[in-house]
User: Fold this.
Amino acid sequence: MGLQPFEAVVASHHAEIYRYLLRLTSRSGDADDLSQETFLRAYRAWEGLDAGANVRAWLFTIATNLARNYYRSESRRRRAYAGVSDTRSDVDPASPEEERRYRETRALLERVVDGLPLKQRMAFVLRKLHDLEYDAIGKSLECSPESARAHVFQALKKIRVSLNGHELPTMENVR
Amino acid sequence: MTTKHPSCRAIELDLVATATGDAESRAAQRVHRHMDGCAPCREEFGRYRAVDHVARGIRPEPAPEQLAQARTGLESRLADLRQRRVAYRIFPSPLGHILVGRSEHGIALVEYLGRGTTLSASRLGRVEGVEAVEGGPELERLQRDLLDFIGGRRRDLDWTLDWRLARSDFERAVLEATAAIPYGAVASYAGVARRIGKPSAVRAVAQALRWNPLPIVVPCHRVIGTSGRLTGYAGDKLGWKQQLLTVEGIKLRAAERDYRIAREAMYALGEGETEYCLPSCGSIGTRSLALLTLFASREVAEARGLAPCTSCRPDLHPLQIV
Assistant:
């Protein structure tokens, strides 16, 4: 059955897909449901998948589709906005002062990202947080790789503008 | 923000891509050349670098127990789905379209679809607790085996079976007794009833075989009436039963709107015996078919470990096959 046992697919990708959906929904319960649904769908389609398929990108496509359906209902979307994102910092900045500033900026950034139009938000998260190729992002969002790239560009511009006046961590060595 | 110089605007997309590690090397070179003479863009570049850096930090790190809980929930739903799942394949055959369905335990369904060619014609989609999914190439072997069997190029289907579609213990017992009738042999409905210890349940046996979820594999075509007539198969498909039996070498004669087993052209085994006989041996020729198994050839009888009868000596006087 399939190219490798499905258990191996779950083992390699579950955590990442869960994180992706948690980022999109900001609610662990919804990330739970959507990630389960993602893998159940994948399991059903597993045997028909081409031997050469990019399993990771394929899982992201399924998860993205489910997340889009999830956001079809506008009320749900608003509820998600209000949701507190339960994330923890995985960065360890040098000083407490810098850490505080970093946290503030990050919290602001999260709100900005959550407020982006859905496709821009998804493209941004897939590219910046999961390093997916634009080909794969295009497939997930049902658009061309160029459009996917443009979504990420637009997202970055908006983020950049909304962070105007906020001190950002200094980046040594700009080149 | 102040209005940008056209050359800055022209390079903006590449600048953002370069600052966020997303640009091809030629575009990056263009951006750096431009920035050498443009302080505002250098600053902009720095801002985007910083934005990108912070942005990559908003990837949520769920608590390990949260992740573990999600994983456990998934595993249990997957186990449930795996249990319910039957992968199927539909293909044309000389007996119309056939569906084979396989669960993780084995082959659960072989079904004649009649005039249908899709899942909607199958009972699989209507069975409670079963999730039918279209199977992949791994079911091709089943198709090949089955077509070889129907065409007489294969004598056994060594498939592991999943009995989940048997609706009762009684049905399961009937199916297993039927599965024990060897290739090239026939027994009667009454004989199967005796074998499962319910000699009077002849009609119930016939009914159970009508619903056989595994025709061909569980060879209900080898079960006939005590009159020697085929009596029925897959609704009104007596012709298919005749075809399957003929392929196995069993001699049949046309009887009105039916076929009759040519008893006189078959070897016979009495109930509980280990030696097979000529049809003319002792009382064999007049014994009820409820008490006999008939074999098309010595070869198929001996393949079952049966010895030739020491009084009628079928080994010395084999039937002349007409």
Notes: Helices of chain A lie at 6-25, 28-45, 55-72, 74-82, 96-114, 118-129, 134-141, 145-162.
